[in-house]
Amino acid sequence: MAEPFSGRSFLRTLGLVGMAMAGLSAADVFLANMERAESKVGAARLFAEGRALMERGQNAQAIERIKDALAIERGNRDYQRTLAEAQLAGSQTADAEATLGALLQSDSTDGLANLIMGRVLAKEGRFAEAVSYYHRAIYGRWNENTQENRLRARFDLVGLLAERNSKEELLAELLPIQEEAPHDLKTQMRIGQLFLQAGSPARAADVFRGMLRAGAPNADAYAGLGQAEFARANYRAAARDFLAALRLAPDDQAARQRLDACNELLALDPMLRGLGPAERFQRSLKLVELTRNEVSPCLAQNPPSELQELSTQADKALAAHVNAVRQSEASESNLDLAEQLWQARRRECQPPPATDTPLALVMARLAQ
Fold first, then answer.
1. 292: helix, coil or strand?
2. Could you tell me the pTM of the whole model?
3. Pairwise CA distance, residues 40 & 29, whole Å
4. Staple 118 to which of 43, 110, 133, 212, CB 3.0 to 4.6 Å?
5. What is the pLDDT of residue 20?
6. What architecture does CATH give domain 182-268?
7. Beta bridge partner(s), residue 189
């Protein structure tokens, strides 16, 4: 006869069933975790393949690999940002903008996503919008190396402004860079050249002098300082700096050409301090001759009457015999005539004159 089912037996059975269920549940969790881990490994592998393809310039294939990785790990922001970079590199700017738009909708402070968006918009020619996103990148949130990444974003913005020759905006962005940037020669050289492009030769000169004080004599720093002094019309100082650059780098043809320009300016400028009346008079005649030569092509066919009259006056001035007593007076008259000829050249003759020749620079200085 079977033993009647007791309460104790029921509880023991129930316990065994519970333990079995707990074991099965633990096994399910373990297997699920293993599956997720394997999925992450697979996604990471696909992502790594995508990055490798990007480095080789195979952007279309890279995009597909990274999309496959995202299909496994949909919320991975690193994968999404890299996908946008690959889309930008592959000129798929509309797709990149859509990818980044979704990222920034969930976190508008994402520094890297804002930086890539700035690059995308710049490539599309939407410069005002691009500048806005660069600023968001500069002041946004970065997961690591915050200062370095913000500086990188600012340099990106500076590069865009320099490319567009936006001098005022460029100068505004350079001022904080000067404080934050590392003091290695390459970075400082770049900052100095950017200050020159922004129309601030005084700040550029400070940067180049700082480079020379901080380290050994450097040809590039001397050449940069020469450019800064040249832009400030300090031609004697510029000539010294270019000469110092050439002593260190004799094959620097750009520095040699700039030194030649300085020497030509110093030989031509009638306003240079220390000139005697006779030398100033000779220089005034030289300027009349050079400006007269500049208008000569305009005299070939139907020249304006003003231009004809000025040309006739120039011929008379060049042929005149002036004694020492009248040289100072004649110098002023010659310089006025040279200015009138130069202005007529600018108005009446095509193409317009270059603005960076020694003659143009001397005439600009006379007009000040």
1. helix
2. 0.77
3. 16
4. 133
5. 60
6. Alpha Horseshoe (1.25)
7. none
